[in-house]
Automatic annotation (TrEMBL):
Membrane topology: Multi-pass membrane protein
Protein name per Swiss-Prot or TrEMBL: ABC transporter permease
Residue ranges annotated for the MacB-like periplasmic core domain, each copy included: 21-246
Subcellular location field: Cell membrane
Membrane spanning stretches: 21-42, 281-306, 326-359, 365-388
GO cellular component, one term: plasma membrane
Family annotation (PANTHER family): ABC TRANSPORTER PERMEASE YTRF, MEMBRANE COMPONENT OF TRANSPORTER-RELATED
Amino acid sequence: MDVLESGKMATKTLLSNKLRSALTMLGIVIGNASVIAMVGIGQGAQRFVAEQFESLGTNVLFVIPGNRDAQRTTVDLPKTLVLEDAKAIATQVPTVAKVAPQLQSRELVTYRNKNTYSSVVGTTPEYTAVRNFNPEEGRFFTQLDVKRNNQVVALGSDLAKRLFINQDPIGKYVRIKDVRFLVIGVMESKGSVLGTNYDDSALLPITTMASRIVGENSPYGVSLTFISISAKSDASVEAAQFQIQNLLRLRHKITREDDFSVQSQKDVLEIAGTVTSALTVMLAAIAGISLLVGGIGVMNIMLVSVTERTQEIGLRKALGATQHDVLIQFLIEAVMLSAAGGIVGTALGVGGILLISAFTPFQAGISPVAIALAVSISGGIGVVFGVVPARRAAQLDPIVALRSA
């Protein structure tokens, strides 16, 4: 008997037991759909993280106080960066385009009877260029505002809506830590970036922030939370990083371990990419377990089928079917169940990815490699887990099979 004839018989047998065949396929369907969806979600997470970093601004470097050990183990970082460091970087590093020192704290912001705790950021006018964050209404503060310690503020869009509801905030006054500030601008909506909601922030001149909100808490000047820097081009990021490190080592008279770290956007993105890739692999591996369970289900049902079809097997062998013919028929049945489950699972996985892309921020990707791998594995599962029941069917003695019937 040729393979084509065996295939026809296998198809007829599976269609005659539709419910059992469907339940057998279910494990393979769930496994394939899970693997494809998890890989798609992982790729979507990688794209989302990359877009989040790109939204921070182009060619961005971050100078953070404290060495790497302190950054990993300490909530309150040491105050090793001051405003003069930022000014030195801006004037002495040739590969740097803009420098935006930042001094941050969380304070009570009040307008009339409305109170809310928000992130308050003291910075300079360069902040808008470095962080790609511009006012949608009104204006941002100027160097003159910084020089004069003017009590002006630009509000994030969410904070402005929460405080003023349907009113125009421009020209009105809010109180930050009992200090009165004139609202001069409302920033464009930027959303959350890596857990920080930029729309829920109040931006002040850094000199006003230091003198009226947090105070100068360093003997060397205005201490900073960190410094954001934009390099002149993509090609100059590494050079800028090297030059900033050397300048700050000279300024801080460092002979051993640095009391700061300079991280490029690319460095942080690579770390985030490594984490999301590892999570993708882990999710795919967990989802892959369901494929294994589905394969065991296929073997279990095929063994039951062999037991139920003992008379049929005995009759076929009595009429001249060889062990090879019986083996091929049962293997084809197992492969057909697995392959059909793989196709249905693939359709469900792709559909799930499209739904996730439509209703969440994650632009989940459809991975042809994941689809090919999942379908190949599901087909292979049919072969691997179909071998045992197929061999058992092929080795049945026709006389014993007919007697047992």
